[in-house]
Amino acid sequence: MTTNPGPNALQRARTILRQKLESLHRSGVQQITRLPQAAIPIVQEVAIVTEPPPDPSPAPEGAPREIPHVAAPVRLAEPAKPGSIPAVVAAPLVPATPLASAPSLTRDQRISALSVLRKEVALCRRCAELAEKRTQTVFGAGNPQPRLCFLGEAPGADEDRQGEPFVGAAGQLLNKIIAACTLKREDVFILNVLKCRPPGNRTPLPDEVANCRTFFERQLEILQPEFICCLGAVAAQTLLRSTRPVGQLRGKFHDYRGIRVVVTYHPSYLLRAPEMKRHTWDDMKMLMQAMGIPLPTS
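Request: output the structure for the sequence above.
Response:
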């Protein structure tokens, strides 16, 4: 017999479930027939089945007995029979709301929320291979009240060792890009789609991106930036849910939940193809103009 959870436990369960449903909805899922593998630990936590506690003072015979509240378990869809329409889990999917309309958080509230999320990321083992081979997770770093966030792909070897994003050769180039925009690294927030280094710095797998999506989306919900700069194809395609290459996405603004998004080339690509730096500088000048930052005269 399990004990009846208190209101805090039930509220936490509802919050976890709502966040997962919101993440699935933003991924384009309108209905689900089987629970994603990454959601199983969450459902195990949310599906609280309780039994009524023993009544120490039974009601007199014939008196109506009060039925205690029992948390309903999450019901998984039954396996579909061949040739039939599969059953659908009856759970509403909440549409993503514009972040600009969300209540503004104070600096202390953001720092506290980011600290809680950082600890959750550090314990994550959704991707068994990445969790086994990582030195540590790379959460992100910077100003908790940024106007601008830089979103990259995944940590590399230097980032995995130091626990900070963009600290290797690509990070040094990103620092120069930020400085060219007359900003400082501590003015912005830098994060990646993945929080763990893929072995050999390979491209993140779709399942890995899906497993980490909730984390970077929650980071952006806490940070509430005005602008996001996507560095490279993985960041841009993941955030914007697009299959178009960077060359087609750059040069104009996109929208992510009310936030203006600019796409440019990843610094590691610019190190291999320095002739493309002029395109990134064009993207940064477009971003600076939108942010109201005076362009350099020289």
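Strands lie at 141-142, 148-152, 189-192, 227-231, 254-256, 259-264.
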